[in-house]
Write a structure and sequence with these properties.
The complex is a heterodimer of chains A (193) and B (233). Chain A is mostly helical. Chain A contains seven helices and no strands. In chain A, helix 1 packs antiparallel against helix 2, helix 4 packs antiparallel against helix 6 and helix 6 packs across helix 7. The longest helix of chain A is centred in the middle third of the chain and has 31 residues. In chain B, 27% of the residues lie in helices and 24% in strands. Chain B is globular, with a radius of gyration of 22 Å. The chains are: A mainly alpha (193), B alpha+beta (233).
Chain lengths: 193, 233
Amino acid sequence: MRPIAIRIFHWVNLIVLWGLMSSGLQIYNANPVFGGRQGWHMPSVFLLGGWLGGARNWHFTLMWFFGLNLLAYGLYILFSRRWQHYFVQQKDLQALAQSKNPQRRQFAWHRIVYTMAIPLLLLSLISGISMYQPSQLHWVARSFGSWQNLRTIHFLAVPVLISLALVHGTIASNIGNGVLLRSMFAIKSTSNS
Amino acid sequence: MSTEDKKFTRRQILRWVGGGLLFNATGTVLYDPIGRLIRPVNDRLGEAMLSQRLIPEIELGDHVDLGKLIVNSFDGTPKIDLANFRLQVTGQVNKPLRLSMDDIRRLPYESQITQHVCVEGWAAIVQWGGVKLSDILQIAGVKPTARYVYFTSADGYYESWDLASAQHPQTLLAYQKNDAPLPPENGAPLRLASPIKLGYKLSKWVTAVTVTDQLMTKRGYWEDQGYDWFASI
């Protein structure tokens, strides 16, 4: 099994990001980012909250779990010194350029993908906080240039993070025939982990 | 991967997506209790962030222009007889006021270019001109017991604010927008404008300002349907 801190981080992220995306898309429907009220609306089966007010309740509840989870993860990788060897490194790029070993190459790709997730999760958080408090936190909100930029970046986090999660999950499920993926989401210890 | 592994994966994926949709369906039913839990927390966060410091104005430039407000109103644009229009200031004040638009125009004029942010997700840069609400409250003399300010509109819309936000130096009763007289659909003759609150807090067609020492059960047209009350931005 993976360390408990890492498993909790993945579980919370999976549930909270699903909730943030589906409540976020419900909020989006009040005034679609592209085209405004005449723009394309999301189908309601994927939405959370039922209406704008209900979606805001969920979105601004889950933001706390998302932010605190990310903070706890950051502290964990800092103090466990994981940051020194778990993320993409020069040798992974070398492996992609030179290695013929498919397992080594897959491993390198995987590190690139999950390392990319960190800045993207942070960008989602910062762009979200900027839309939540654009006046009180004007110094960060205005660094995005315009309100439309801010909305677009925060919205694009949805397709980008879904794609990243799918690639991350697919590679992880290929590693050791699913052992890595199962060990990440295992709740109780099992014989094959 | 063997066929068995693939089957297992497909079933797993279906289970995850099904679980997600079930989560959404359950969560949607529970939107109100969740809101009752979280809104007081986030209202307190808004209160903690609030100060009387000025929010820097937006500087217009090459790609920064005054914007257009989408007109939202729950009951159209009310007809207001300007000759008989009076702004009432009552409640926990030493000197209740009845001000005509001429009275209000004689008070110090304040202009600001700020961003108007709607709960729906759009925003527009607007130049607002009018009188500081804090000036009017000062003339009326707010009693030490005062904590909230209610706003009544000609169309029946109602809002309540915390006193500190109402006294913020950029909270205006505006009668001018984008260098022109305030159009009727945007709230003429008098509306709230402020860079520290979401659009639904910025009542249009304001006819009465009532200072109170407590919040009533009715806190605002949208708040009573589930929007957050503090709604700072």
